[in-house]
Amino acid sequence: MEQKGNKQTRLKGVLLFIAISSVLIAMAYAHRIGYAQTTPDHAASARAFLAALPVFLHARCVNCHPAGDAPLQGDESRPHAMNVKRGKDGMGKAAMRCSNCHQTANQPGAHMPPGDPDWHLPPEDTPMVFEKKTPRDLCLQLKDPAQNGNRTPKEILEHLRPSLVLWGWNPGEGRTPVSIPYDTFMKQMTDWVEKGAACPD
């Protein structure tokens, strides 16, 4: 009887070892292929978004994400001169193309036309409006695939890395740069995504 009990105990131990090993292997594989997820913390996620919000509402960002069909300009977000319009592709309408004045880099001198190789507004079908939005509405819009170019929250993070976004921190003479450091902003946005991409109430 005692020998039989020892065998059963050993068998249970082996089965337990196999079960634990299988779970650990599955977890490692899931992490390697990207299935492992950070546990959602919606309250912390919403707080992170609110911490990043001043960047979206800064003139450097609002001016290219206006409520209307025309870009804004200046620290006070006044209507753009010469009645410039967005255009279907966001690069200007008819002969008033953005690239007529906005070159690949900031032009020297105070208040001279700023520039970037990809200077444009969001296109007509996904205008991605920041101006006059509540924090919640801006957040919901930002993660809505129908409004953000069919991007996932993680792809939104990548969309915040190109030079046109970074221009907000180096806007040229006579313009106020975004006040929150870029690395801080990206940390807040990464926390927003990884903790569940929750929107504030």
Describe this structure in words.
The chain has seven helices and four strands, in the order H-H-H-E-E-E-E-H-H-H-H. The protein has helices at residues 2-32, 42-56, 59-62, 135-142, 153-159, 163-166, 182-194, and strands spanning 72-73, 78-79, 92-93, 96-97. Strand 1 (72-73) and strand 2 form a beta hairpin. It starts with a helix and ends in a 7-residue tail after the last helix.
Derived structural class: mainly alpha
Low-confidence stretches: 28-37
Q: Span between N and C termini?
A: 66 Å
Mean pLDDT over all positions: 88
Task: Bin the helical content.
Answer: 40-55%
Overall 3D geometry? elongated
Figure out the total of helices. Answer: 7
% residues in beta strands:
under 5%
Write down the secondary-structure element order: HHHEEEEHHHH
Radius of gyration: 25 Å
In order across it, which strands form the biggest sheet?
Answer: 1-2
DSSP, total strands: 4
Largest pleated sheet: 2 strands, antiparallel
Topology:
Layout (H helix, E strand, L loop, with lengths): L1 H31 L9 H15 L2 H4 L9 E2 L4 E2 L12 E2 L2 E2 L37 H8 L10 H7 L3 H4 L15 H13 L7
Antiparallel strand pairs: 1-2, 3-4
Helix pairs in contact: 2-7
Describe what is shown at a glance:
The chain has 201 residues and is mainly α.
